From TrEMBL:
The lineage of its organism: Eukaryota, Metazoa, Chordata, Craniata, Vertebrata. InterPro entries: Ig-like_dom, Ig-like_dom_sf, Ig-like_fold, Ig_sub. Its main location: other. The keyword ATP-binding does not apply. This is Platelet endothelial cell adhesion molecule. It is a single-pass type I membrane protein.
């Protein structure tokens, strides 16, 4: 049988231990740094009408934690969000099949990691030419 004071100590330990663990995890939340965010267009920023286009967003994120951070990547065209994905990967892509003139515009990507965010510069996609006639 435990003394009465030991029973109370066990109860307090049960309350304090989760609080200490939560504050420890909270410190880890802020241990992520978004070093850079970049965007690439394949095959290029100027593309022929009717060809395929892939937009890629790259995030360089460093951490002091052993936990791999979840990235939220947001793709914008002319400041309007058109694609949003959560991923553990540092690169995400958006595929546009058979681009048309209306796909021309200003594109950018924003990366969010634990309430920190960084946005690329704006890139101009230019779709040139007329589409090939369909028979």
């Amino acid at each position: 049988m435990q003394p009465r004071w030991a029973q109370g100590a066990t109860m307090w330990l049960g309350v304090l231990l989760p609080l200490l663990l939560c504050s420890s995890l909270e410190g880890q939340e802020n241990s992520f740094t978004i070093n850079s965010v970049d965007m690439k267009s394949l095959p290029d920023w100027t593309v022929q009408n009717g060809k395929n286009l892939t937009l890629q967003c790259f995030a360089d994120v460093s951490t002091t934690s052993h936990v791999k951070p979840q990235h939220q990547m947001l793709f914008y065209k002319d400041d309007v969000l058109f694609y949003n994905i959560s991923s553990m990967k540092s690169t995400e892509s958006y595929f546009i099949p058979e681009v048309r003139i209306y796909d021309s515009g200003t594109y950018k990507c924003t990366v969010i990691v634990n309430n920190k965010e960084k946005t690329t510069a704006e890139y101009q996609v230019l779709v040139e030419g007329v589409p090939s006639p369909r028979v």
